[in-house]
Amino acid sequence: MTIDEVLTRGVERILPTKDGLASLMSKKKIKLYMGIDPTGSELHIGHAVGLRKLAQFQKLGHKVIFLIGDFTGMIGDPSGKSSDRKTLTHEEVLKNAENYKQQSSKILNFTGDNAVEVKFNGEWLGKMSAIEFLKLSHNLTSAQIIERDMFQERLKKGQDIYMNEFLYPFMQAYDSVAMDVDLEIGGTDQVFNMLMGRKLMKNILHKEKYVLTVPLLTDGNGNKIGKTEGNAIGLADKPFDFYSKIMSLSDNSITNCFTLLTNKSLEEISEIEKAIKNGDNPMKYKKILAFELTKWLNDEDKAQDAQKHFENTFQDKTPTFDIKVSSGGSLAETIAPFTQRQSLSNAKELIKQNAVDINGNVSIDPSLKIKSGDKIKVGSRTFLIAK
Predict the structure, then answer these.
(1) pTM value?
(2) Structure confidence at residue 167 (pLDDT)
(3) If you write DSSP's letter for every residue of 269-318 in order, what string do you get?
C-alpha cells in the first residue's frame, strides 16, 4: 500500500492534517502506537480495525508499538459511559492481557527486522510518584478536561464525575510523552483522550503528535460491536463460531465490514452494495465476507470447514453435535463456558429465555443433571454432546 492509501481507506480523521502526516512519513520512519486497556480477555473484530491500520504502517517500515494499558486498565476509560466503570486489580488486568500478543499476532508481525514492540504503560505510570504526577498534571487544565462531552452530559443530569475518571485522560495522554511518539491511532470514541496527548506533547516535549482515528465497527443499528455491548466476535474464536457470528450480523453491516476488515477493492464493495440494493440475496455476500475473515484469521482449510459446517447446520438443518462435554454436572454449569460472557449467570439467563434445549426439548431447569449421550443446543450456533 502507498502512504496515501494507508491514510485514506478506513480512516475517519487525521489531526491536525493528513498532508502534514503524509509529508512526515515521506521524510522519515515514524513511531506510532495504539493502546488497548485489558478490561476483558479477548480481542475482537472491533479491535481488528485499528490493528489492521497498525499492520499497514508496519508494512511501510514504520516503528509500531502495541501498548497494553495495564495501569489505565485498572481504572477503566470512561469513554461512552453514563456511569463509572468497575475498577480492576493489577492481577486482573494482567490476566486479561496474557494472550493479547498471541491474539493480535493474527494481524501484526512480532518477529523479523521491523517487529511490533509490546509495551505496558505500568512501566512509567506505575513508577510515578505522587509529586511527579501533580507536577506533570500542571500541563493540562481542569477546563480542558471538563469540556469532554460525556462529562458535560453527566453534569446536566446531576450525575457524579469521579476523580479517577477525571484524571484518566491525563494518564492516557502521558503514554504519548513517555514513548515520544509521532502518531497515535484509535477509534473515534478515543478522540478526546488522544487530543489530550497532543496538548501534553506540545507542553512537555514541544513536539507535534498526529492523531489518526479509525471508524468504530458497528452493527446495522449503529451499535458498537464489542464486549460491553455483548456482541463481540473474538479474534481467537473457533473458526466455526467466528464464521457463524459473522453470518449473524445484520445485512446492512456487510459493506462496512468489507471496507474496514478486508482488502477487497472499494469498487468491488460498491458493486456488492448496489447488488444488494437491487434485490440480490445478502446471504451470498455475507458468506463471502465470513469466509474471507475466517481465512484471514486462521487459514483457508479452516475457513472451508467452517463454511461447510455452517451450511450443514443452518442451511441443510442437520446440526452436528461435535463439542464434547462431561456428564454429571448441572445444565447451567455445563453450558457456562460456551456463553457470551462465559459465566454461570449468563448460562442461567439463556436457560430462562428458552434458548437451550436437550435432545430436542427446551429446558428451563438450570440444575438439571446432564447424562451421557445428552445433546445440548445452546442458542442457534453451539451444539454439545455429553460423554
Answers:
(1) 0.78
(2) 86
(3) HHHHHHHHHTT--HHHHHHHHHHHHHHHHS-HHHHHHHHHHHIIIIIS--
Span 11-26, pLDDT tens digits? 999 999 999 999 999 9
Q: What is the pLDDT of residue 197?
A: 94
Q: Which three cell numbers stand for residue 102?
A: 498471541
Domain 323-386 CATH assignment equals 3.40.50.300: no
Residues in contact with 32: Cβ distance below 8 Å, sequence separation at least 6, in sequence order: 54, 57, 62, 63, 64, 65, 181, 182, 183, 184, 185
CA triple 119-121-126, angle to 5 deg: 135
Q: Domain 3-214 has what CATH class? A: alpha beta
Q: What are the domain boundaries of the chain?
A: 3-214, 239-315, 323-386
CA distance 264 to 293: 11
Find all residues with CB under 8 Å of 144, minimum gap 6, and list them. 196, 199
Distance CA 305, CA 109 (A): 26
Burial annotation 229-268 (CB, 10 A radius, 16+ → b, else e): eebbbbbbbebbbbbbbbbbbeeebbbbbbbbbbebeeee
Class of the domain covering 239-315: mainly alpha
Q: Please tell me the distance from the alpha carbon of residue 252 to that of residue 218, in angstroms, as a whole number.
A: 10
Would 3-214 and 239-315 be classified into the same CATH topology? no
